[in-house]
Write a structure and sequence with these properties.
By secondary structure, the chain is mostly helical. Helix content is 77%, strand content 0%. The protein has seven helices and no strands. The radius of gyration is 25 Å and the shape is rod-shaped. Residues 7-61 form the HTH cro/C1-type domain. Keywords: Coiled coil, DNA-binding. InterPro entries: Cro/C1-type_HTH, Lambda_DNA-bd_dom_sf. Pfam families: HTH_3 (PF01381).
Length: 126
C-alpha cells in the first residue's frame, strides 16, 4: 500500500475530513486532496505534520506492511473529537444563530419577570 493510501486510511479511521486536515495543515482542501491522490510529493516536514495530526508514527505510514495497528480506544476517541470539531466548524453559523435566539429569549423572560415582580409589588401595596 502506498504512503498516500495509508494517510487516507488513517484519516478516514479517525473520521477526519479532507477539509479538516487542510485547515489543520494551513493549506487548501484542494492541495490536501492532491497530497492524498499523490499528485503532490510529500516533504518530510509535511509528512511529520500529517503524522502528528493523525497521531500515527511516521514509521507506520512509511512501512511496507499493509497492516494497520490501531489502539481502538484511542482511535474511537480520535474519531469522536474529529467528529465534534467538524460539527463545530460545519455548523458554526447555526450555533451562533441559536445562541443569539436564546439570548433574545432570556432578555424577553427577564423583562417579563420584572413586569411580574412590579405587578406583585403593586398588589402587595394595595
Amino acid at each position: 500500500m502506498s504512503v498516500v493510501s495509508k494517510i487516507k486510511r488513517y484519516r478516514e479511521a479517525r473520521n477526519f475530513t479532507q477539509n479538516y486536515m487542510a485547515e489543520q495543515l494551513d493549506i487548501s482542501q484542494n492541495t490536501y486532496s492532491k497530497i492524498e491522490s499523490g499528485t503532490i510529493k510529500l516533504t518530510v516536514d509535511r509528512l511529520e505534520q500529517i503524522s502528528d495530526l493523525l497521531n500515527v508514527p511516521i514509521e507506520d505510514i512509511l512501512s511496507s506492511s499493509d497492516d494497520q495497528h490501531f489502539n481502538f480506544h484511542n482511535s474511537t476517541i480520535e474519531k469522536f473529537y474529529g467528529y465534534i470539531e467538524n460539527i463545530q466548524e460545519d455548523n458554526k453559523e447555526l450555533l451562533n444563530t441559536t445562541i443569539q435566539i436564546l439570548n433574545e429569549q432570556i432578555n424577553y423572560l427577564r423583562k417579563e419577570n420584572e413586569n411580574l415582580i412590579a405587578i406583585i409589588s403593586k398588589n402587595n401595596r394595595d
